[in-house]
Amino acid sequence: MTTRAARERALELRGIFEAAGAAVVECDILQPAETLLDLYGEDIRARAYVTQDPARGERMLRPDFTVPVVQMHMAGGAEPARYTYAGEVFRRQEDHPGRASEYLQVGFELFDRTDPEAADAEVFCALQSALEGLPLRAATGDIGILMAAVAGLGTSEARRAALLRHIWRPRRFRQLLNRFSGKSPLPESRRALLAEADPMACAAPIIGLRDREEIAARIEALRADADEPPIARGEVEMIDELLSVAETCPFAIDHLKHLGMDHPPLRAAVDRFERRCDALAARGVNVDILDFEAAYGRTSMEYYDGFVFGFYAERRPDLPPVATGGRYDALTARLGQGESIPAVGGVIRPDILSEIGGEP
Description:
This protein has 360 residues and is an alpha+beta fold. Helices cover 42% and strands 18% of the residues. It folds into 3 domains: 139 residues, Bira Bifunctional Protein, Domain 2 (BirA Bifunctional Protein, domain 2), CATH 3.30.930; 98 residues, no CATH class; 78 residues, no CATH class. It is built from 14 helices and 12 strands. The strands form 2 sheets. It has a 9-stranded mixed sheet, with helices on both faces. A 3-stranded antiparallel sheet has the order 2-4-3. Helix 4 packs across helix 12. 34% of the residues are buried. The mean pLDDT is 87.
């Protein structure tokens, strides 16, 4: 249940972002389910509320604002553009039964292609300023560094694509990395299937949406993957070391630069991280004490593909993050029908602020 105090705080926060130059936007509570399913696959059903409309088809209660804001901007927004909003979002909380499934979000989104690192710093500082005076810890990360590491692996394009697709699912990512590197054996059922001279000859009746040609193509892809040599041990160790980086920003930069000496695909992404730290410092952020975790943000919504950040109440580890955000350049390309623009944004949970000492 959203309290009156939380609503008042939400409007206050939205006013702060509006004063910083953001235009106020509204988004429908019922969103087309097809768009979100295309983006995230069927996994989104476990986290969202889905309903059926006899005229409009399958709809989804708004799980966040970012997707509809991106769609609105890509349909004809000016550049650069800043937006803010306040309203309810709806998330199923099966893994956290005590947490609210309906709550307020206040957001700030920035679309600007001129200087992405400066835009990252602007959004981070906008949220930090709105939360000033509260006992919060800031955490940062960069999904783009891990994506660069995976994209540079000396393996097949299909294996790189599979790992990139599951970056936001750490357990599945690890399973794939172990199998592709030979640490885990091929599942016995798959081994038996590939051992058949003609797997389709003894296949069961076709059930589901895939036809025989699609199934045959999938089997051939599995055979090609089985013939692929394992990912080199040194590359797996590089991924493991990268994911273990959890230090203040200057030490993290040094650590990642050291990794980049032996793994050149990391270098451009690490340079972006360093430029972002410079942009944050220029805005008054003490990056010498700002935490960086290379694995941070991997369980968030799957559109973040660069800078990620969050603000937490350290004295209340039972609470979800007070605020989160990140860069989502690839999302604008997917929703822009061929057009794209670098974009970054963040959201605040006003309902949590009163629990940690924030005045309504």
